[in-house]
Each structure stands twice: as C-alpha cells, then as structure tokens.
User: What shape does this take?
Amino acid sequence: MAPPRTTPATLYLSSIPPSSHVGVDLSSFSTPPQFGGITSLPPGIHHVWLSPAPSLVLRSGFWVDVPAGLGWAQHRRYEAEMEALVPADLATVGGMLLPYRQRLPATGEETAASDAWNTLVAHVSAATLARVFGEDWSADSTMPSSAEDHDGADDGLPPTAAETERSLRFTPVDLKRTWREGAVGQERTTQARDRSWALERVLQAAGGPQELLGEWEVAFVLCYYLGNYAAGEQWRRIVALCLTCREAVVARGGSGGGSDGSALLVQVLAALRRMLEVLAAGEEHGFLGEEVLAEVARLLRGFGKMLREEETDDPSRGVEVRREFEHLKEWMARKMDCVLDTREMLRKGTVMTEEGDIVEVEAEGLDEEEETGEYAPVIVEDVDLQPFTTAAAATSSRGSSPVDVMMVDEEEEDDPRF
Assistant: This one.
C-alpha cells in the first residue's frame, strides 16, 4: 500500500540483510531488526549508501533530491546478485522507520537538521548529478571514471563493457600538460608553474565554477563514504589544480569572458575546510588517508607562500583569498596540528634520544617545497646568438646542397678514426 500524501518525506529500504551498515548524508548506523527505511528527510540533496552484511566491504550508494512539502516517498530494494539498492514498487513497503538524524562533524552531536550536510554539498545540484551519473544517480566502490587518466596509470587497454556502460563522467583534468597548444619558451614555463590557464579550460569543460565545485564535492562524498578510488583521484586532481594557480588569485570575470578566479578560490578554500572537518571527525579516511592529506598540506604551504609574494608586490591583490586562507590555516593548526606557514616551522634543532644522547636533526623537504637551496630556480642568462647566426649565414652562402644536414652515426662520433 502506498503511503498517504500527508506523511513526511520517506525513503523505504527493504530486503536489507540484518546488521548491515547504512549511511545517510553524514551519519551511519547498523540496521536493527525489521528495519524498513528512513523518514522525515529534509528537503534537498541527500546521499544514501549501504554496506551489506556479512562482508561490510563493498558499498553502493545513490542520491535523491527531496522536494519541499509532504508526501514524497521512494522505495529501494536490496538485490543480492547486483549488490545494490534498486528502485522498487511503493506498494510493497513496510517495516520500522527511523527518523532522519545527523552527527555534526565539529562537535559529534546529533541533530535532525541537515545544515552541516547541506554546507558540505552546497554546490551539488540535480544538473551536477545528472552530468556525473546520468539518469541513475548511483555508484559503488569499484565504479571507474570515464575521464582520461592523466596521471600515467593508463595501461593502454580498451575499456571493458562494464566501464563503458557504467562509469563516473568526471571532467578530465590533465596536471601534466597545463599550457596551451603551441606554447613555447617563457609562456610554456609560466603556464607549467601557474595552472590558471588550465583551470580556465577545466571550468569551461565542466560548465562553470559552480559545476566544478559540485563535481568536486560529489567526488569527496563518493571517495570518503563509498571508498571509490576514481573519485578520490578526481578530488585530488582538482585540489592540486586549484592550489597551483597564481593568476587566478586576482582574476575577476568581466567583459573578456574569463571566470572570477578569486571568488572561485575563496569557495575552494572554504569547501576544503568543511571536507577536512569531516575527515578529522572520522576514524578512517580510506583513499583520503595520511599520504593524501600530507600532499594537500604541501600544496597549501606552497599556495600560502605564493599569497605572501602577491601581498608583497601589491597588498590589494587577492585580499579575499588571503583572508579565507588565514581561516583555513588557523583551523588546521588548531584541529589538525598542521603548520601551513613554513616560516613558523623549525628547520634545525637538537633532540635527546632515549639513551640520553643529544643529536641534531633537520627537517627534510622544506627546500623542495619552497624552491630554495638546491631546488631554487636557475636563471639562465641570455646567450649572444650573433656568432652562430653569422656562421650559419656564411655556410648557406657557399651554395645549396641536396642534403642540408649530414646525420652521423653515434658510433662514428665516438670512434677515434673519425
């Protein structure tokens, strides 16, 4: 029997194995006997996932967009062969319904409000979900991404039928080539070090800043709650792309059609802090573990150094970005014991070992992060090409030859007989 139109928004879940793990937005719980679903869902976007007993390893999840008002209902039934929750008829619902509850990442308190979740997925819309998932807003732990792998992990093999039919349609992000086609010399070097040009192209491919931010938030949810590796890689690539942009810090949209890079980076830093709050509150980070968090901290330190350089050149540049970065820096120092300003880090000092010996230690990797010491950029002076030009002109004036350049074998160059 279908529920009456006067009931609160309800998601019915049936045929779920006992003691399975179910997650709704930021919270999760073990299913009690006769569990039948969740009621009183607030309006907005929600993510629901299931880790069926007894394995509790593979997770599958789906998204719903609950409208305002009463009477909304949806029924999902667990299919053991597919290991997923699939749409089912509302006429067969039943069981015990649990009210919607959320555990706040900052305090651990439970509440019936969805404010913390809404903030985490503030840029996710129905259009974002349709673009990433297609008609069926669902995914699982093993779903691949149809975006080209730009980190060199592509084995060159054609995609399987499963990968072609069901994959995450993320926006391709190429971190190895961030300069325009045909760029050479200083232009290519600048765009390799400052990825603002590449960021603008990714924004165009995604459909704008809000769509890219929404895709990034979806990737975080899929990686953290479902353990999806492809989503984790996309999340990491977008972080690396945004935190290596210098020109975008002061870029503002105008008649030229460019994106407001300053406003985008402010939103990126604010969203990153909300994501780190979720990670800090959890016990396991999955693919967003210590190694990835260390990479994010390294990128943030480089980003902060760049902001200080911009402030030195012109204090009026990137004010909003610097302010948001300071909020993130203070939060990470307080909650994660992470220092983002290398000027505040002890580079060399002495410590006492368990045996009572005093030894000198030095922090490693700071020179590489700050591009100092042996990692400092080398300035190549201009070379006077006039002698080479004169010699080339003299050679060409002697007459043409059917073979302009004589290619010699490498063995002949090394052979003393030649």
Summary: The two ends are 95 Å apart (CA to CA). Residues 377 and 412 are 37 Å apart (CA to CA). The first strand starts at residue 10 and ends at 14.
